[in-house]
Write a structure and sequence with these properties.
Length: 333
């Protein structure tokens, strides 16, 4: 098995050819989540919203559920502790904070208060990956998927668009244990209609192919994978695409099929190469003992320097259609 990380390359095609891969609708996943949560709180008194002064709910009309919206301020460890206490008391808390703070600043509380006790806390982390790039590297969240998938009992979800966000929020509300739901910041296009439904624990097949399989997670990586696969099809390269919206529990059967029926796998993610989706896929392939190369399009082992727009930082750090194409060509060579 070969595992190679993508080298950063400045490119403007971070979401290459997405016009045909996605509809014209674009809505921020965090706004979709907010609207669904208001509905859930209105229907079920067990649900509680705990906020860390994110501003996401500043204009929200909660109605009769208003007493169950609590803004605890910028105190993430306290936020997780309060959520654990409420969950122990029969509530189902939805905790809102930025991804980097959930996965690093509050990690001890997440690990010991929530995961260790297997409590039904839903940690909804916005500004995932490089989506808070305008705030600099302190707000980049490139470690969160690796951190959270290592915690026992934790379900890790990364919806690729608004409809998937709604589906996963509603689905995870019924799960018995803790959940980490990673969302971005800005609006992203919806995937083209007609794809397989989104179900927790099952990869969503977006395209069938026989040469190479692209496995992606998150809005921009998935759009990049689909757009690149369509471009490669024009030159006779048949590429399958899987949307791995559930990073844990991972759909091992889908990975096994990819490893045995195509000539290699390329993972695409908005995360450091170590510990994220690529690592998880490589672990499954290594367990199989098959000769399937795995190449990773991810942020290299360095801090993403500078500030800027989301797409600019993705391209600057190698999350691009050009990087995916290069890896596919190497596999087929």
């Amino acid at each position: 098995m070969t595992v190679v990380t993508a080298e950063p390359a400045v490119s403007t095609d971070a979401t290459a050819s997405t016009a045909s891969a996605a509809s014209t609708e674009a809505r921020a996943a965090r706004e979709v989540y907010r609207d669904v949560l208001v509905e859930l709180l209105g229907r079920d008194e067990r649900h509680v919203c705990l906020d860390s002064d994110t501003g996401l709910f500043s204009a929200t009309a909660w109605g009769d559920a208003a007493p169950r919206y609590l803004n605890l301020g910028i105190a993430e460890q306290n936020l997780m502790g309060v959520a654990a206490g409420l969950a122990r008391s029969g509530r189902v808390p939805f905790v809102n904070t930025m991804a980097t703070f959930a996965a690093t600043r509050a990690l001890e509380a997440v690990k010991l208060d929530i995961a260790w006790n297997n409590l039904p806390v839903r940690i909804v982390a916005t500004h995932g990956g490089l989506s808070a790039g305008h705030l600099g590297s302190t707000h980049h969240a490139l470690e969160d998927l690796g951190v959270m998938r290592m915690l026992p009992n934790m379900t890790v979800l990364v919806p690729a668009d608004g409809p998937a966000t709604e589906t996963l929020v509603r689905s995870c509300a019924e799960l018995p244990g803790p959940v980490y739901l990673r969302l971005g910041r800005g609006a992203t296009p919806e995937l083209a209609p007609g794809a397989e439904p989104v179900r927790i624990g099952l990869a969503q097949r977006l395209r069938r192919g026989t040469d190479v399989t692209l496995i992606a997670t998150g809005p921009h990586p998935v759009l990049t994978a689909v757009g690149t696969a369509e471009e490669l099809a024009r030159i006779g390269i048949d590429v399958a695409v899987l949307n791995m919206h559930t990073v844990k529990p991972l759909d091992r059967e889908a990975i096994v099929e990819a490893a045995t029926r195509t000539r290699g796998i390329v993972t695409v993610e908005e995360h450091w190469a170590a510990g994220g989706l690529g690592s998880a896929v490589a672990e499954v392939v290594a367990d199989l003992g098959v000769a399937c190369p795995v190449r990773r399009v991810a942020v290299a082992d360095r801090f993403a320097a500078g500030t800027g727009g989301h797409r600019h930082l993705l391209a600057r750090n190698g999350i691009s259609g050009a990087a995916v194409t290069e890896h596919v060509r190497r596999l087929l060579a």
